[in-house]
Amino acid sequence: MAATADRTSKPAAEGSASPLDAHRAPVADEPKKRSSGKAVAALVLGIIGVLAALIIPIVGLILGVIAIVFGRNAKADVMADGGMSGRTQAQAGFVLGIVAVVASIINMIVAAAIIAS
To answer: Least enclosed by CB within 10 Å: which of 89, 90, 108, 115?
Structure first.
């Protein structure tokens, strides 16, 4: 029985006083950063707003404005809270919101010019 115990036990580190010193100390995993829901919403609204701006300009305009507001608020929240991720998504949603608003306005002007002629 003593021979079996010797094979399964791990040798202690050299110069160590205890066999427990041969093992690494347990380390907790890094906590994941929380993702900003506003940033995701801004990105989704921006993408849909750009697509809608080409088909239904008023819907693209509304979604673009909402994406701008959500993107701006999300970026401020992420910058204020260091444990939150989503800064790039918030910025992308903000930019796509601006693109949606501009595309909607251009589409409305072109449609008005076509109808007037």
So the answer is: 115
Enclosing domain of residue 87: 34-116
Cβ(57)–Cβ(46) below 8 Å: no
Q: Which long-range contacts (CB under 8 A, 24 or more apart) does 31-34 make?
A: 31/83, 33/83, 33/84, 33/85, 34/83, 34/84, 34/85
Q: What secondary structure letter does DSSP report for 86? A: -
Longest dimension (CA), the chain: 101
Q: What is the pLDDT of residues 56-79, one digit of tens each?
A: 999 999 999 999 999 999 999 988
Task: Say what the pTM is.
Answer: 0.70
Strands in the chain per DSSP E: 34-35, 84-85
